[in-house]
Amino acid sequence: PDEYVEMLTADLIAEAGLPDPVHQFSIQRRDGKMAYFDLAYPEPVGIETEGKIHLEEEVNRNDHQRRNQLLIGGWWVLHFTYFEVTRQPEMVVRVIREAIAERSPLTTGI
Questions:
Q1: Residue 108 pLDDT grade (very low, low, confident, very high; cuts 50, 70, 90)
Q2: Strand segments (E) across the chain
Q3: How far is 75 from 26, CA to CA, in rounded Å?
């Protein structure tokens, strides 16, 4: 389930010594609809963890529309699959660390 991948990702972030993200962060998109990130930083960097449900055509189409609206609104949206979180954890941590650093140039020690 998606919640399990989200929990594993949060654990990776904590183990890497990165700042704690906000869980289930909500934001109003430019089109007026609400969006929820699995995890997010105020830099603004959103993290989405994707289980099998995101392979379904309608869910995937909605994901793309949502992502486009969030990008227009200034958010970087990172996506990680179960495979990436469980088999490539170093890559997941590296990408999150780089995104936070890139979006927040005054951040130090990350």
A1: very low
A2: 22-28, 34-41, 45-50, 76-81
A3: 12
